[in-house]
Design brief:
With 298 residues, the protein is of the alpha+beta class. The chain is 27% helix and 20% strand. The protein contains seven helices and twelve strands. The strands form three sheets. A five-stranded mixed beta sheet has the order 3-2-1-12-6. Strands 7, 8, 9, 10 and 11 form a five-stranded mixed beta sheet that branches. Strands 4-5 form a two-stranded antiparallel ribbon. The relative contact order is 0.10.
Length: 298
């Protein structure tokens, strides 16, 4: 006779069976994790394990799970969940990863960074500038040393990480620039779509293209995108690529130079390879929230 405990017993049996497998023995018919998985899967998995936003919902039957959830969880996905929950250690590279590194460990790192919102370029197993920029964005957000290299501890930390939470509850779509951590959080429909390392105003005096003296500071506050220019644009702050102006001549724009530290005239620089897509995603009127060092995120 089927009872309301049947699904839980089945879940326990599957979990126990998976836990009994040696950590170094991958399932022959399952791909190695991490692999791209729709975001709803992780929400459902946490709900099924009584974690996350659905933790208070009782598990009455398999039919009570979200309609879009998969009917079964493959072995590789169980392993991914176990790693995320800290119940299993993942293999780590013998040597730190950095520019010039390559191979399966780099490919796994790239996939994971992309899955949790840090664009790392193509998943090609080559640790290039785009992968380094994603690692630096992760290091900045987490308050780690900003060296763009990944040792065994940081590698496992990244593989256990989940997508960061949106810093503000409202509005649903906005751009959040954290000058203290030197990161930009691109929030769409209440979810952090991507975290990008930036370089903002370096607080030095300079003479602008308008012939006037300025101090290189990025204005803080709540703004909106006032105008956009496709391609290159000349501003009194310099030559900007796909700029989104949010206050006067201050813009979020692509640049071939995005140092770890704030060095710009006051604009918010993002990597040039991300600029065009970012430009297309955000229209006139998009909210831009810029917070200074020491400002606590909501």
């Amino acid at each position: 006779m089927r009872t309301r405990w049947t699904p839980l017993l089945a879940l326990a049996a599957v979990t126990a069976a998976f836990a009994a497998q040696p950590a170094t023995s991958p399932a022959a018919s399952s791909p190695q994790w991490p692999v791209p998985v729709p975001s709803f899967f992780w929400d459902w998995a946490r709900w099924y394990l009584h974690r996350g936003p659905h933790a208070d919902e009782p598990l009455r039957s398999p039919a009570s799970r979200p309609a879009e959830a998969p009917a079964r969880i493959p072995a590789w996905a169980w392993r991914r969940v176990r790693v995320m929950l800290g119940q299993e250690l993942s293999p780590a590279p013998a040597q730190p990863l950095g520019p010039g590194s390559g191979g399966p460990d780099v490919r796994r790192l790239q996939r994971t960074l992309a899955t949790i919102g840090f664009p790392a370029g193509p998943v090609d197993g080559v640790y290039g500038e785009r992968t380094r920029a994603a690692v630096v964005a992760y290091e900045k957000l987490q308050g780690l040393e900003r060296d763009g290299r990944v040792d065994a501890v940081q590698y496992r930390s990244i593989l256990r990480a989940s997508r960061p939470a949106a810093p503000l509850a409202q509005p649903a779509t906005y751009v959040y620039v954290d000058l203290g951590r030197q990161v930009l959080l691109d929030v769409r429909d209440g979810r952090v779509a991507q975290v990008i390392a930036i370089s903002s105003g370096g607080s030095y005096p300079y003479t602008g293209l308008d012939g006037r003296e300025h101090v290189a500071r990025t204005p803080t506050g709540s703004f909106r995108v006032q105008r956009k220019v496709a391609g290159w644009d000349e501003s009194y702050l310099g030559r900007l690529y796909y700029p989104l102006y949010f206050q006067g001549g201050y813009a979020i724009h692509g640049s071939t130079s995005v140092p770890i530290e704030p060095v710009s005239h006051g604009c918010v620089r993002i990597p040039i390879w991300l600029a065009q897509a970012f430009f297309q995603e955000h229209g006139i009127g998009t909210r831009v929230v810029v917070v200074g060092p020491g400002t606590a995120s909501a």
